Amino acid sequence: MKEIEGGDNEVNNVAVSDLKSGKSIVAWCYDDLMAKNGVRESTKRTLGGQLAKRMLQHLATTQM
């Protein structure tokens, strides 16, 4: 695992291969947050689904 230069090491401890494979930063941060707080896998999936629905609705109404 390589670190991305600059900033907080805790945040930058991202595997370069994850970034290159297209895994989004949002998904990585979500997984990391859930793991640090000891959230059960079933709860993580439920919350992730709710988050995804809200994000998709927002993205559908905004322009990039």
Describe it for me?
By secondary structure, this protein is an all-alpha fold. It has one domain. It is built from four helices and no strands.
Helical amount: 55-70%
Uncertain runs: none
Q: What is the subunit organization of this protein? A: single chain
Number of domains: 1
Secondary structure: number of strands? 0
Could you state the order of secondary-structure elements as H and E?
HHHH
Q: Which secondary structure elements does this structure contain, and how are they paired or packed?
A:
Layout: H1 9-12, H2 16-20, H3 25-36, H4 41-61
Characteristics of this structure?
single chain; 64 residues; mainly alpha; 4 helices; elongated
Summarize the structure.
By secondary structure, the chain is mostly helical. It has helices at residues 9-12, 16-20, 25-36, 41-61.
